[in-house]
Design goal:
- This protein is α+β, with helices and mostly antiparallel strands and 178 residues long.
- The chain has one domain (33-177).
- It is 24% helix and 45% strand.
- It has helices spanning 4-18, 25-28, 36-50, 74-77, 79-83; strands spanning 53-60, 63-70, 95-100, 103-108, 115-123, 126-137, 141-150, 154-163, 167-177.
- It has a nine-stranded antiparallel sheet with strand order 2-1-9-8-7-6-5-4-3, with no helix packed on it.
- A hairpin with a 6-residue loop joins strand 4 and strand 5 (115-123).
- It starts with a helix and ends with a strand.
């Protein structure tokens, strides 16, 4: 009977230790693929600070518009790039990685993944081009996006979509840095 309090104390310590919150899983699992989210978060911070002049062209179906401006919110401007990040726990192992010279290509192994291809090009270790291809298809909607980013030079978003009730639409957004 004299060991019962020690036994209960041991059980309570074990229970208390097992109830401790786990470390953040993202911190324990390193990114398997290049992190578009991290890269574009850094670009947003850098571009917000630099506030470069941009010639922005928008082509929607057959209508075109062009302006020179300073982008007020780079997070919104580059959001599609960040949203294409493939480092999601459920997607581990879902991309084939091919490396050649100065380029790494991530290709989806599953057609259900919206981000189908990411190509990262480098020169002397510095990123020179990021190309992303996104595809979404379901009964009501289909969309094809091609995103290109050349740091301090140009970014481009091309999208073709077909909404069953509304019809087809195309647009292209291009920003050229000055």
């Amino acid at each position: 009977m004299k060991y019962v309090p020690q036994f209960i104390t041991s059980i309570l310590i074990f229970i208390a230790a097992s109830c401790q919150p786990e470390e953040k899983q993202a911190g324990t699992m390193p990114d398997l693929y290049f992190s578009l989210k991290d890269y574009f978060d850094k670009e947003v911070t850098r571009l917000n600070a630099a506030n470069p002049l941009v010639t922005k062209s928008v082509l929607r179906n057959e209508e075109a518009e062009q302006k020179e401006l300073h982008i007020r919110n780079w997070a919104t401007e580059l959001e599609l790039f960040s949203q294409s990040d493939i480092n999601k726990p459920a997607w581990r192992g879902e991309y084939r990685v091919d490396s050649a010279d100065h380029q790494v290509t991530y290709t989806a192994l599953n057609d259900d993944l919206s981000t189908r291809k990411v190509i990262i090009s480098r020169n002397s270790g510095k990123i020179t081009h990021i190309s992303i291809r996104n595809v979404v298809k379901n009964l009501l909607y289909s969309s094809n996006e091609t995103l290109d980013y050349y740091p301090d030079s140009l970014y481009s978003i091309q999208k073709e979509q077909d909404v069953r009730v509304i019809g087809e639409g195309r647009y292209q957004i291009t920003g050229r840095f000055h």
